[in-house]
Amino acid sequence: MPQPPRWVRRARGLVDTPAQVGLLLVIDAVAIAVGISFYAHSDPSLADVAVWWYPLFADSPVAVGLGALTVAWWLGRRDDAPPSWPAALLATLAVVWLVRMGLWTVGALAIGWRAYLGADAVLWSFWGILATHALFLAHAAVTASVTARRRGTLAVAAVALVVHDVADYGLGLAPPLPYAPTPALLAMSVATSAVALAVAWWWLPPAGATTP
């Protein structure tokens, strides 16, 4: 089975101490609050979506939340035993969602960049969102560095991604954009889902084969 790349293993140095983990969790909390505010004021907004669809609609805050929960779990563990199946599933979903939403957002902005020309607050609505979501990939690496996957967790994540894409483009729950969905956007979404699964397989070692 593959081992994660060395730079992913070294990412653990960013969460070596409780203080470092605490700082990351504070940053995550701020990012989640900003993300929820975005979806609360978007069109459509959280008010237009049934509560049970929130995890699929507000997907970027969910991605950060999954990463934060995984890192918090690592801080609270009492030994170096491999993660339980539920903890490994949480970690797998966290890495997959962080990579998927990081790549998807960068791709969506690149495909529809013309729609942002002349927009109010373009510095934030384009460049700010681009930069913050690119950092999702760094968060995914840190998350992957402290945990592992187990048999079946990638399969569950794959099913969740299919449900996510169907909800986005079949039920209209895709993240709000200033342009209508296009075939290029749909193709990019499917591609980023596949890449996210591949990255999780590469970055997350199988349980019992973690490397310090």
Overall mean pLDDT stands at 88
Strand content: under 5%
Structural class: mainly alpha
Q: How many distinct beta strands?
A: 0
Tell me the layout of helices and strands.
Layout lengths: L5 H5 L7 H23 L13 H4 L1 H18 L8 H27 L10 H24 L7 H18 L12 H21 L9
Helix pairs in contact: 2-4, 4-5, 4-6, 5-6, 5-7, 5-8, 7-8
Explain what the structure shows:
By secondary structure, this protein is an all-alpha fold. It has one domain. It is 66% helix and 0% strand. The chain has eight helices and no strands. Helix 4 runs parallel beside helix 6 and helix 7 runs antiparallel to helix 8. It is globular, with a radius of gyration of 17 Å. The two termini are 16 Å apart.
Keywords:
mainly alpha; 212 residues
Give a brief description:
This protein is an all-alpha fold. Helix content is 66%, strand content 0%.
